[in-house]
Design goal:
Elements (H helix, E strand, L loop, with lengths): L1 H10 L3 H23 L5 H17 L9 H23 L9 H4 L2 H21 L3 H9 L5 H8 L3 H21 L5
Length: 181
């Protein structure tokens, strides 16, 4: 309920609400960005992406659904991290003599990744609720089992066992279609 009130205050152009959001969600945003970008970005870049996340939140505050503030912030952080990785990769230059074209030219791998992504999307659709939501929260929003437990009202052990069973179902679905590790 407190988060919903915070979201409503943001929508009402309350700048103090933004300050509260920054204080409350910076650790989560930093974790998401770090999980996506890892060692690919320098500390300054990580801080920039974190700041960009909250700036984007402020400029898009009219789109916030009060009961989905945390998910909205997570989505922005994820997209900002990926955007930063793309722009950073574009600005890297390699001397032509040092370029390893055999490793860089991987069109077939990109196509295969797209096909696997589609197969995974179909597998997720077949999971059903609440397993689908739990998997998305865990792997897409990078939420821990305790955070998922708090949101869904399930016991933490139940969340963990559902994640395990859902992973097994996804693995089976993908292996039946010829995708295996």
């Amino acid at each position: 309920m407190e988060t919903e009130q915070l979201a409503k205050r943001l929508k009402d152009d309350d700048e103090t609400a933004l300050e509260e959001v920054i204080d409350r969600f910076t650790p989560l945003v930093s974790t998401i960005i770090d999980n996506i970008a890892g060692q690919s970005l320098q500390t300054g870049d990580l801080e920039e992406v974190t700041s960009d996340t909250f700036i984007t939140l402020w400029y898009n505050r009219s789109k916030i659904q009060p009961d989905k503030l945390k998910g909205f912030i997570c989505c922005i952080a994820k997209n900002k991290a990926k955007d930063k990785l793309r722009t950073t990769a574009r600005h890297r230059t390699v001397d032509i003599e040092e370029a390893d074209f055999e490793d860089k030219f991987v069109v077939s791998e990109a196509i295969e990744a797209k096909i696997i992504t589609e197969a995974l999307r179909q597998a997720l659709e077949q999971l059903g609720e609440p397993d689908r939501e739990i998997i998305l929260r865990h792997y897409y929003y990078y939420q821990s089992s305790s955070e998922i437990s708090a949101v869904t009202g399930m016991k933490q052990e139940t969340v963990k066992s559902r994640i395990k069973r859902a992973r097994e179902k996804l693995k089976k679905h993908l292996s039946e279609r010829g995708y295996s590790k």
